[in-house]
Specification:
The chain has helices at about 1-20, 30-45, 80-90, 120-125, 135-300, 305-385, 390-395, 400-410, 415-425, 430-460, 470-509, and strands at about 95, 100-105. By secondary structure, the chain is mainly α. The chain has a two-stranded antiparallel sheet. A hairpin with a 5-residue loop joins strand 1 (about 95) and strand 2. It starts with a helix and ends with a helix. The model is unreliable at about 1-35, about 40-120, about 315-320, about 390-430 and about 505-509 (pLDDT under 50). One of its GO terms (biological process) is regulation of cell cycle process. InterPro entries: CEP120-like (IPR039893).
Amino acid sequence: MRSRETGSVATSSEMCGADNPYGATTGTSSSSRNSSRRSALAKNPSASTPSSHTLPRPNELSMRAPGQASPPSEALLPTTGAYSSMRHEQAATTTTGDGGDDRVTPSSLPHHAFPKVSMPTPAATARDASHDVRDTVEYRAAWDLELWKAVQADRFRKQLARQKSAAFADLERSVKRREKEALAELAQRAQGVALREEAAKSVEAQLTARQGKLSEMEKDLRRMRQQLLDAQQRVEDEVRAQVRLANDTIAHRARLLEERVKAAEAQVKRADERQRQAQEDYLGLYEAFNRYRSQQLASAASDTNGFLNVSSTSAALSPALTPALQLEQLRAQWDAEHQLRLDRQEQLHKSEMAIVQERCRELEERNRRLTAALARRREQLRNMRGAGADTTLMASASPVPQLCVDSRKQTVAVPTSAVSVAAAATLSPPPPVMDALRRETVEQIVRELRRLESDRASLVGGSSGALCETDAVIVRMNDRMRHLQQQLASVRGTAATTAVVAVGGGEGD
């Protein structure tokens, strides 16, 4: 412990000797001071101070003289005025390490920076006058060390305060800078959020509009699907009615032909019966003539009158032979005429049978065409229902034209071409296609009119009176022909109106 205190005192004395500006006033050099300090400490170890602020006050110090025992009551040495003023000047002025001059007033130093000095009593002064401990080198070194420690501690406190204030200022500037940056970033983020909110609102408005359009498109699609289903049902009903009408017509014509055949067979039977009756009459007359002749020949052999009798007999027979010859001639003529009539009826029957068979083949072919058209139409409607979700078909969809609406009101069967035209007209095509569709409709109606006229003429002329103008089939055909003529007139009027409007629009442009 003594060696550690000795080393600390020596080091402190060296530092004090190096930093103390008043080292020259002690009257000795630093080396002699150190050697005398070590010898004094070796003799009196209690004179060393372990730490700052632990030295006793000058009026309380008591040190033994070298080589003497410590008396029970040792007087304190008074402090000289020159030494005290030197210590106060050294404590009042210090030089900073960075070259600046820091003025420290005694009032700015803490109360423990200066040891308290109390004036000794006269008795103590008289007692310790011969031994003043404050004049020793060790005391000076300790005092200088304590004063230097106090000055350095105050300087370190001021330097710490300056560094703390600078650090707080830097921290405040950093906090303010970060606050500005945070505010700027917050404003930028708020602006970005506002822009995103506006974009989201615009997108929401667009989505709302698109949702409304989508709902309208769905309504149009449902309506168009319903129209397609209605059109398909109407086409199927019309095709069924047409097939039923064709079957009824074929059955009616077959019945008419069967009746004609039966009538012809009855006429042939009656003619055969008349021919057989005529032949029986002829054979009866011929046998009566033969008997009469035999009787005359038998009577002529026994007659004695000779030539007169014979001549009278011939004169009597001649009136009887004349009706027989006339009857034979009439029979031969009737046979010829009857054979000619039979041949004529057979030819007419063959021709009528050929016509009926040809018409049956035509009706069968037409029935096959109607069946194929119905299958194709069903496939088209199925494809149109499958592609109904397409927006292009929805955009091009329009109300059913008046021509198809008028044709749907009819109960008469529509032909295959008219059915296909009516089914194709359920959707409104683009304007460039309307003219071609209109022309095709006119051609189809004209062909249908011609066909109906030819069928009507063949039915009325070839029925041999079985069908008349008041028959149900002829009346329905007349109504159909009249309706087709009205449709043709309406289509041509619509085309003329469209052309006039187009010309007027072109002139206005």
